[in-house]
Design goal:
Radius of gyration: 17 Å
Strand content: under 5%
CATH superfamily of the largest domain: lambda repressor-like DNA-binding domains
Shape: elongated
CATH topology of the largest domain: 434 Repressor (Amino-terminal Domain)
Number of domains: 2
CATH architecture of the largest domain: Orthogonal Bundle
Number of helices: 7
Distance between the termini: 48 Å
Structural class: mainly alpha
CATH class of the largest domain: Mainly Alpha
Largest sheet: none
């Protein structure tokens, strides 16, 4: 399995206000301290933990990995195509979150919206920089 970005996992958990106990329960661990050992790298997350982590942390799978954009690596898409696809995934995730959680999700989604807007601007800047000059 590719190496997980444990700093992202712990930072995202904190950003969302999730406790160690919340994560332990989601993953089926008996105690928060057991989960902490996974988050700190003492134990290795198993493949079946990854989708649960992504769901609980409200992120896409590729963000959990250190080895760059997993979508790009596994699909053969160009960097720009992978970034556009990633943006579409995030936009649908945000839309789903708002529809399903209603007013409770607005505060939880603020950090996600900020990252989404930042990523969208990054893609637009990349597209501007790769377009040939007008003649």
């Amino acid at each position: 399995m590719d190496k997980l970005n444990l700093d992202y996992i712990s930072g995202r958990r904190i950003e969302l206000g999730l406790t160690l106990k919340d994560m332990a329960e989601a993953l089926g661990f008996k105690t928060a301290s057991t989960y902490l050992k996974y988050e700190k790298g003492s134990y290795s997350f198993k493949a079946n933990h990854i989708p649960v982590l992504a769901h609980k942390l409200r992120c896409t799978l590729d963000l959990l990995f250190l080895d760059g954009n997993l979508l790009k690596q596994k699909s053969g898409l160009s960097r720009q195509e992978a970034n556009k696809r990633q943006l579409e995934i995030w936009q649908r995730t945000l839309q789903y979150e708002i529809e399903m959680m209603a007013t409770r999700s607005v505060r939880a989604c603020e950090g996600f919206v900020t990252r989404l807007n930042s990523f969208e601007k990054y893609i637009e800047d990349q597209e501007r920089n790769t377009q040939p000059p007008a003649t």
